[in-house]
Amino acid sequence: MNDRFIIVGQFRKGDVRALIENSALRVFSSRGYDSASIAEIARDAGVSTGNVYVYFANKQALYRAVMDPSIGKELGKLLQRELSSFRKAPSEELVDFVVRNRLQVSIVLGGVTGNESESTLETVVHDLVRVTLRRTRRPMRTNAGSHLRFALEQLHSSFLRSLGTTLRTFRSRDDIRSVVAVCFIHHSAGLRELLDD
Fold first, then answer.
1. How far apart are the C-alpha atoms of 134 and 131, rounded to whole Å?
2. H helix or E strand, kind and range, residue 155
3. pLDDT digits over 151-194, tens only?
4. Could you tell me the CA-to-CA distances from 114 to 118, 120, 186 in Å, in that order?
5. Which residue range is the domain that position 21 belongs to?
6. pTM, entire model
7. In terms of domains, do 55 and 108 share one?
């Protein structure tokens, strides 16, 4: 029998709720919101599925409890500042933000569907494309402009997926910083090459 099931009766209600919320963040991050189940979150927390429903009406309510709705907007603003200057390395502000909010950022970057956060990743990509296009030296003819926009959407989406995967894979600040720095260098170089042609 799982030891956590035996101990749960000794926890205060707030402690059980915190266990469930921490497990939800881990499971949403590793499996994605759509693939995560209440039963899996309960298993991770070491509580019964019924116990999760004591605190949360459904998966959506649990998601709302653990996710800060401003995470996507804050990440988007930070990335816009970073990428609009074509920095060669991520700022400490960006690294601090993603490390501090590692699980929530990885959830947002994993692409959430089926709830109010569904468009967050798409919005971040759209805003990054908009900011990047302001910096282009290329003439924006109709066809060339749509091709460039498409290429930028793919480039930014790929960078964000890499960032999300990094946050799901690594936990230490140094590891995250190192991998993000490599991704950042290649992403910035790709942007410069694409926009300076």
1. 5
2. helix 142-169
3. 899 999 999 989 999 998 999 999 998 998 888 888 888 887 77
4. 6, 12, 32
5. 3-66
6. 0.81
7. no
